[in-house]
Amino acid sequence: MENKKQPKKELTIDQKINRRNFISFGVFGVMGVAAYKGWRWLYTAPKEVAGVTASAKAPLRRALNQTELAMRNFFSNNHLVRTYPKSMAAKNVRHNSDIGVKGGFVIEDWKLQVIKHTGEILTFTIDQIKALPKTEIVYDFKCVEGWDQIQYWGGLKMIDFIEHFGLAEETKLAYVGMMTPDKAYQVGLDMPSAVHPQTILAYEMNGKPIPMNHGAPLRLIIPVKYGIKNLKRIGSITFSNTRPPDYWARSGYDYYSGL
Ligand SMILES: Nc1nc2c(c(=O)[nH]1)N[C@H]1C(S)=C(S)[C@@H](COP(=O)(O)O)O[C@H]1N2
Ligand SMILES: [Mo]
Fold it and tell me: Transmembrane region positions (predicted)?
């Protein structure tokens, strides 16, 4: 077959330079427009549901949520937090902030409220919770402010509570929310962490009823999370597919706050 290819026309030096300039300016132009459009897209993007995650723009939030998902899949599936012998637990348990755990609270009047996704409200007494098998854990409690301490807690596993009181349907939802009785402090939890085998509704600290300033009569101990998520004095528990309010996430802390 005859070769039909024309010999390539040689370009002069000037022509080569012009051509190169044309290409590079073109590329810069396209990049510039793309960058501007990207910025506009981010800038004009709607905020995430107001108040829940400190107003991060939705696309950024989506990126953060993706990392969160990867972390969850990596860590959650029954990956257990390290535990220690009781002898290593602190006798003087550190005490931190007290939002929603202040005076004017009558422990005898306390009841736990559970709000199902259907809106149905159930109430439980501390005796109903104590009547079920107790689980104890000694682990390293970590506060985001930079301290940690090996502590010894006892109570009812969240998953046992859910199963025993017929709440299994609720675990199909994405989130669990908890609040103090006065609603002043709230935490939102992803379902896998809430039903993690080491997550407990604690009523004992060092083998005795939890003192008032540590969240009597019932607090959350969730070893897969930082201290901020370990709500003291649980007043209510809700189940939902939208993120429940969260005291610290609202002021910019990571919503997931996992370890
Ligand atoms: N109700 C309520 N729960 C709370 C807090 C709070 O201020 N109020 N602080 C959280 C933080 S930041 C930490 S580190 C732990 C501290 O618990 P402790 O006081 O038992 O050490 O409780 C968490 N749960
Ligand atoms: Mo904390």
Answer: 21-39
pLDDT tens digits along 21-77: 655 555 555 666 666 655 555 555 555 555 565 556 566 665 666 555 555 544 555
Q: CA-CA distance, 136 to 207, in Å (whole number)?
A: 9
| List of residues 6+ apart from 82 with CB closer than 8 A | 139, 140
Find the residues whose C-beta lies inside 6 A of ligand 1. 94-101, 143, 180, 185, 214, 227-228, 230-233
Determine the distance separating the centroid of ligand 1 and the alpha carbon of 40, expressed in angstroms: 40
Asked if 27 and 87 sit in the same domain, the reply is no
Per the structure, the count of domains in the chain is 2
Q: What is the token pair recorded at 53?
A: 């995650």
133 shares a domain with 87: yes
- Dist CA 103 CA 91 (whole Å): 25
Give yes or no: residues 19 and 124 share one domain.
Answer: no
How does pLDDT run across 240-259, given as a tens digit for each residue? 999 999 999 999 999 999 98
CB-CB contact of 152 with 138 (8 Å): yes
Instruction: Return the ligand number nearest the Cα of 145.
Output: 2
Is 61 inside any structural domain?
no
Q: Which residue, judged by its Cα, is nearest atom 15 of ligand 1?
A: 227
Strand partners for 135: 155
What is the three-class DSSP state of 74? helix
Taking CA atoms only, the protein residue closest to ligand 1 atom 14 is: 227
Residues 86 and 181 in one domain: yes
Whether omega before 192 lies within 30 degrees of 0, making that bond cis, reads: no
State the Cα–Cα distance between residues 228 and 68, nearest whole angstrom.
17
Classify residue 245 by its DSSP letter. P
Atom of ligand 1 minimally distant from the CA of 205? 20
